[in-house]
Amino acid sequence: MYIEYKGVGLHGSARIGRVTFSRTGATLYYKGKSFGRLGGAGFKANYSDETGEHYWISGPRKDRTDRLYKSDWPVEIDEDVREEYWTEIRKRPELKSHTQTNLSTTKRPKATSLTRE
Fold this sequence. Notes:
The chain is mainly beta. It has one helix spanning 82-89; strands at residues 2-5, 14-16, 20-21, 27-30, 33-37, 47-49, 54-58, 76-77. It has one domain.
């Protein structure tokens, strides 16, 4: 899934990673965090975490237009999904060693709870 932090405005740090769903599908889980749907109540976001921070979460796109708004900021790809992302979703197996979707930028988003380990 594509997960973008929306707590600081239109653009935030983002990742491609594997999520799991609750039995009912109402909650997503990613790296120890749980995300619940905002049900249309969020501004430029569709999920919030347990602290109330907002996120845009969706399936990754083949054309790399995952962000809600166009941006040159890189999107990090988790190691456990990197090869699958480049070969199955993007159909670019020659890039399977890349850990970001945009390597040509020098812009970096501020660290958030999503990017901290």
